[in-house]
Specification:
42% helix, disordered N terminus, 11 strands, globular, disordered C terminus, Spore Coat Polysaccharide Biosynthesis Protein SpsA, Chain A
């Protein structure tokens, strides 16, 4: 393990957060807001690195902090992250980023290290220390305190198209930036779009604390039609789960026929959006994205959605058993060795005591 020591000591740990966990991908320079936030909070920083971010460079940028920067190898696998849902035919051939793996690793590292309260922070979100402390404090009464990205909404390509067509889709709290309390009910992030909604289905029951708003850096949601196709199954899945819950149905109580009705209504939505946008020249990229989504929806069935839910609920129970089995108070270095990531890690020597209890 490449373990480096800083002479500067970390400030007194924040009383309500054990660590800030960042799935880092975009750039080392883009981590500056997360580094400043951890400095202001006086708490640990966990940087789970891939893409254009390397652990050694990220660690150097965070001098003076208690940091664990870890390179996540392409295709990283671990028995603790083996889920039946990842092998479901509806998602098995999909190309996803590794953000779900990183978030699950963040939960595992926290559990093994005896941390009870962490803050997930996407590397394109901007959050102030007062907001973070308030979210951490909300964990006294909630499992999750999640933020909403309103200035540039964190939503699917189809819902961005709905906004372009003059609609007003709801802006929901996202796990992209959220404080999470680990307990016996903590679940996991499936390898599917809208994985945060599935995480919140259990971990936030009866609902997440609304921690306010967070800034997300803008991007072009229609740049790649394939993005809309990759999101479609997860979008239908999550929105169906929300609809059933509002109707008083648990996920396992929805029938194949219920899911078939969800698919049919989704098709009506896509067709309506395409009609509304067809007359607008500037909407051609959105139309191409809608076509890709509609093509993917045409291969989505109520049976697929119902069977995915069955596997997901089985995965949730297995995950909770795994978290229970690995719970402890290991040094971060030992936790990473257990996960087979010790050779990819660059750590600071200082390790503040765990304080976010109760």
């Amino acid at each position: 393990m490449d373990q480096r020591t800083d002479s500067a000591e970390c400030a007194e740990p924040d009383p309500v957060l054990d660590a800030v966990v960042v799935p880092a991908w975009r750039s080392v320079a883009g981590l500056t807001p997360a580094i400043r936030l951890a400095q202001d909070l006086g708490t640990r920083l966990v940087l789970l690195c891939s893409g254009r971010v390397r652990a050694a460079e990220a660690r150097t940028a965070a001098t003076g902090l208690t940091v664990a920067a870890i390179d996540i190898p392409p295709g990283y696998r671990n028995p603790l992250l083996d889920f039946a849902t990842s092998k479901h035919p509806a998602v098995a051939d999909a190309q996803f980023t590794d953000v779900r793996v990183k978030r699950n690793l963040g939960l595992l590292i926290a559990r093994m290290s005896g941390w009870s309260r962490i803050l997930f922070l996407d590397d394109d979100h901007l959050l102030g220390p007062a907001q973070a402390r308030a979210a951490g404090a909300a964990l006294r009464t909630h499992r999750v305190a999640a933020f909403r990205a309103e200035e540039f909404p964190d939503r699917s390509v189809v819902r961005h198209a709905e906004q372009l067509a003059g609609g007003t889709p709801a802006i929901s709290p996202s796990i992209g930036t959220a404080a999470v309390r680990l307990d016996a009910g903590t679940t996991f992030f499936p390898e599917v779009y809208n994985e945060d909604w599935l995480f919140l289905y259990d971990s936030a029951a009866p609902g997440p604390a609304d921690a306010g708003t967070v800034r997300q850096l803008p991007y072009d949601p229609f740049a790649r039609p394939a993005r809309a196709a990759a999101e479609e199954f997860g979008d239908v899945l999550a929105e169906g789960l929300v609809r059933f819950r509002e109707a008083g149905l648990h996920a396992t109580e929805a029938s194949e026929a219920d899911w078939t009705a969800v698919v049919r209504e989704r098709g009506d939505l896509l067709g309506d959006l395409a009609r509304r946008l067809r007359a607008r020249d500037h909407a051609k990229p959105a139309l191409r994205a809608l076509e890709a989504a509609a093509d993917r929806l045409s291969r989505t069935t109520g049976e697929q959605l119902a069977s995915y839910v069955t596997l997901w609920r089985e995965d949730v129970e297995r995950w909770r058993e795994r978290l229970d089995a690995v719970g402890g108070s290991l040094p971060v270095a030992s936790a990473l060795r257990f996960l087979g990531l010790h050779e990819q890690a660059v750590l600071s020597a200082a390790e503040p005591p765990a304080v976010a209890t109760g």
